[in-house]
Amino acid sequence: MATPGKRRRDLDPELEFLVVDDFLRDLLGARALKTAFELGLIDHLLERHPASLEELGKIAKADPAGTAFLLDMLGANLVVEKNAGGGFSLTAPFRIAMRYRDLLETKLDFSGFLAADYLELFTGLVADPPGFMQRARLFKLFDYNRCLQPSVENYEHTRIWMRLTTTLTRYEARGCLLAHDFSGYRNMLDIGGNSGEFVLQLCRKNPDLQATIMDLPLVCDIGQEHVLPAHERERIKFMKADVRKAVPPAGFDLISFKSMLHDWPENAAKAYIERAAQALEPGGTLLIYERAPLQLNGQMPPFSMLPTLLFFRSYRPPAVYEQQLAALGFTDIQTREVALEVPFFVVTGKKPRN
Ligand SMILES: C[S@@+](CC[C@H](N)C(=O)[O-])C[C@H]1O[C@@H](n2cnc3c(N)ncnc32)[C@H](O)[C@@H]1O
Q1: What is the pTM of this model?
Q2: Which of 71, 132, 177, 181 could form a disulfide with 124 if both were Cys (CB 3.0 to 4.6 A apart)?
Q3: What is the pLDDT of residue 6?
């Protein structure tokens, strides 16, 4: 078994968060970890360690056999270790992973939620994609029609999947910041920008940057709330619009699409890029940050990749976007790869000034 942390010693420190997947490699280990969170064992061991089996049994309100079995599972998953005196502690690599607790727990929850799609419907995903779309929890969760009309149920539903997109994006933004220099931009538009987390990360690193998010009405409302505690909130605006009809306004020197275009058929994605290109200021930049098509290279993907894996049909190679930008007369078209838990890419192009 791979030793957590070892494989990625050469990582940029900004990408250290990738270690969370080391503890979410398979369903059995991940479920045991979720139970340890639910029973309060992880929080206890963060504060007090080493802890005896009896002490942990009391915290978990579980019998000795249940506690010992759970600790065995956690030991096999390199979450806990037993010292010579029989006490249990969290391993050093797991303590590092806990710096990214939001990401770890979000991946645990969503992979668990979608496990039934894989276990019961994977054959459909391979051989009957429309049937899979009808039955999968994945598409019931990401139901954008529920982001249009305000109702208690619709807000509740929308918040659930926005937790996934927001948490993933908090960390994926780091890859984009490493790949592209945002320091020259003043006013950006992020189409399908969700809770504003992507632009929040960019604004945090670039104090002169202002940003507008274009997204569906309920998503914007929840996004407004999301950025409210941040110092950068004054620089972040939300624009409620349906990308299928909306014409982006003028005045932006950067227009971005992050993990948004893969949701749409190629023709629709092309139309959104064309409209963005028209709206962009001359000399401005269009930026697309997306996952590349998944390639396993002979390695089983970790369980935590399930939400991404179920979308495997959607990801396009960067060449599709490079060609579109070239056809629109864009110059200085560049693609940079970003190696996260799967490969991402950043495609950028400049609109001619003429
Ligand atoms: C896969 S999410 C990506 C969100 C965000 N860019 C990120 O990377 O976290 C797609 C986004 O597109 C938005 N979206 C879907 N349909 C839309 C529409 N018709 N008009 C505007 N935004 C839409 C969704 O609300 C969601 O925020």
Answers
A1: 0.95
A2: 132
A3: 44
